Structures are given as C-alpha cells and as structure tokens.
C-alpha cells in the first residue's frame, strides 16, 4: 500500500509529494523549496529515497532539487523538453521575480518518456501533459488509483498558460486526453492546493465544460 504525503512549501506553497511504500522506500516529487524540511521529514519517517521526479521545471517546483539530491545521492528525472530549464533562471522563471533567488540546478540524471516506469518497487506511468509548460508530465499510479499532475490541473481550475512555452489549447487537450480518461475515483494531486478526483473535475471544473 502506497502512502502519499503532501508538503506545501515555499512562498507559493507548492506541493511537494513523498510517495512511500510499506518498506519505507520513497519517491520525492517536486521538491520546490525548504530542502532541509524535506530531508528532515524523510529522516523522521525512516524513509529510503530512490529518486526525485519533476512534473515540470518552473522555479517553485525545483528550488530544493540539488539540496535533496545531494543529501541522499539520488537521481533526478525530468522531461527532455525542459532539461535546460533546471539550469536556466530565465526559462524556469526565477529571474522574473525580484527578491527571490535565481534557481540554477545541475543537469537531470534521466529524461522521462511517455510510458511505464519502474524505480525500485514503484511501477507507474509517465504521461506527457504539456500546455502549462512544454515538458509537463503527470505520474499515474494505476494500482493505487492516484495521479500527481503538477500544474496541469487543479481543483476547479487549470494551470496558467502565459509563461514560456504555455498554450491553452494544448493544456486542455492534455487534460481531456491524458487525465479525464482516468476513472472517476482517481485522486488528483495537483501542484498547488487541495487534492480532487477525476469525477469531481469532470462534473464541476468550469474550464472543462
């Protein structure tokens, strides 16, 4: 049985997720800020991190990548279309906001492609869901009936499309084709805000009517 823990981090309260199995092995998704807190939480739960997965490379999702990666000596996975965003503050958006630190990480270790992935005991699917950003990816855990979708879909909202590489029609096609095709009871864990379900969004999300 997988357990998903949610940690809203940093000034934008970006959701970092830790997915843990019964043996303590875990995946870290979007360590956006507060790297020391993420490390502390994993140590507290006796977690054994295997990898960092990135839904996309906007600054608020990648701010603690190197701190967490280096502490646990684990690889980072990102979609190839955003491989340079990790290192480039203009692409990841951190240069747009005076007063916030410029984010520049080391290169990713692996590039995500659509299809099934296996990392240790974790088996899941990566689905390319561009629109919010060109390399946005959603992680589908079919057996556990949940998906981590980054800033593609929110509770009664969708991701913004006015940043580099964003496109509204592409985003809506990604949601319809890659997320709304999931069963109604699938839990959706977004990049910000509370979780929801596919059925609730199909029924009440005003952007999907």
Automatic annotation (TrEMBL):
Gene3D superfamilies: Ribonuclease Z/Hydroxyacylglutathione hydrolase-like
SUPFAM superfamilies: Metallo-hydrolase/oxidoreductase
Keywords of the record: Hydrolase, Metal-binding, Zinc
Transmembrane spans: none
Domain of life: Bacteria
Domain Metallo-beta-lactamase intervals: 13-192
Any single Pfam family the record assigns to this protein: Lactamase_B
Cofactor list: Zn(2+)
Annotated InterPro entries: MBL_Glyoxalase_II, Metallo-B-lactamas, RibonucZ/Hydroxyglut_hydro
Keyword presence, Oxidoreductase: no
PANTHER family (UniProt xref): HYDROXYACYLGLUTATHIONE HYDROLASE GLOC
Protein name per Swiss-Prot or TrEMBL: MBL fold metallo-hydrolase
Biological source species: Sporosarcina highlanderae
């Amino acid at each position: 049985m997988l357990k998903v823990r949610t940690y809203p981090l940093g000034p934008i309260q970006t959701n970092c997720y830790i997915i843990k199995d019964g043996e303590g092995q875990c995946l870290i998704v979007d360590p956006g800020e507060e790297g020391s807190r993420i490390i502390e939480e994993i140590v507290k739960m006796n977690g054994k991190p295997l990898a960092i997965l990135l839904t996309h490379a906007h600054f608020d999702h990648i701010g603690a990548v190197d701190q967490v990666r280096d502490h646990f000596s684990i690889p980072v996975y990102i979609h190839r279309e955003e491989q340079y965003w990790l290192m480039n503050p203009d692409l990841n958006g951190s240069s747009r906001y005076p007063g916030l630190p410029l984010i520049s990480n080391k290169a990713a270790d692996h590039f995500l492609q659509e299809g099934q992935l296996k990392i240790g005991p974790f088996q899941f699917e990566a689905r390319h869901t561009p629109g919010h950003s060109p390399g946005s990816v959603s992680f589908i855990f079919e057996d556990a009936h949940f998906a981590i979708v980054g800033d593609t879909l929110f509770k009664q909202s969708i991701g913004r499309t006015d940043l580099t590489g964003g496109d509204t029609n592409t985003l809506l096609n990604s949601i319809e084709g890659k997320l709304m095709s999931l069963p109604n009871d699938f839990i959706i864990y977004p990049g910000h805000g509370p979780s929801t379900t596919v059925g609730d969004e199909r029924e009440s999300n005003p952007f999907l009517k």
